[in-house]
TrEMBL record:
GO terms for molecular function: lyase activity. It catalyses: L-glutamine + H2O = L-glutamate + NH4(+); 5-[(5-phospho-1-deoxy-D-ribulos-1-ylimino)methylamino]-1-(5-phospho-beta-D-ribosyl)imidazole-4-carboxamide + L-glutamine = D-erythro-1-(imidazol-4-yl)glycerol 3-phosphate + 5-amino-1-(5-phospho-beta-D-ribosyl)imidazole-4-carboxamide + L-glutamate + H(+). Pfam families: GATase. Residues 8-211 form the Glutamine amidotransferase domain. Keywords: Amino-acid biosynthesis, Cytoplasm, Glutamine amidotransferase, Histidine biosynthesis, Hydrolase, Lyase. CDD domains: GATase1_IGP_Synthase (cd01748). Its EC number is 4.3.2.10, 3.5.1.2. This is Imidazole glycerol phosphate synthase subunit HisH. It is found in: Cytoplasm. IGPS catalyzes the conversion of PRFAR and glutamine to IGP, AICAR and glutamate. The HisH subunit catalyzes the hydrolysis of glutamine to glutamate and ammonia as part of the synthesis of IGP and AICAR. The resulting ammonia molecule is channeled to the active site of HisF.
Amino acid sequence: MSTPARVVVLDYGFGNVRSAVRALERVGAQVELTASKKAAVEADGLVVPGVGAFAAVMAGLRGVDGDQVIDRRLAGGRPVLGICVGMQVMFAEGVEHGERAEGLGEWPGVVDRLEAPVVPHMGWATVDAPAGTALFDGIGDERFYFVHSYAARTFPLSDDIPSDSPINRPLVTWSDHGGPFVAAVENGPLAATQFHPEKSGDAGAQLLTNWVTSLR
């Protein structure tokens, strides 16, 4: 019998992340909620959760050297999964209430307020997953649970890489609320979702299963 994948959910003092821990345990991962740099660097997979404001999440991450941990893991090709604001901070910057905050800069682009009649976007929505997706294998037609007022509404990196480039273009999944926005990204060892897979029922559980399975 194979050893369960070891997953660290990064604890940087923000929000209730127990639901993410439980969801990962249910799909067979061995999960630790910790701020330990050593554990976060050495785990098979690192999950970066996020709720609240972009700037506050960035401050929390820097407070436990999460930015360094994420950089180190990605430089070594070790998987990272960002969820909700944990996805947003992977972009270069976020704009909230007219204030700009620097993100982790793993991807170019800006996270800003959705332009829709009703904000926040709260509830179940479909996604448009690309061909070749691993995260959405078998669940591309399902609905996922979103709670957010901000999102990346463009993904410049896809446009920056020519179609004939030897570099793999990121796989970007889109959804729509007053206009298209980035719902998920798969980019080598870095994957992220704007929605909450841990709150997305069977579809979310299958997405987490797909990710955890890829760690071994």
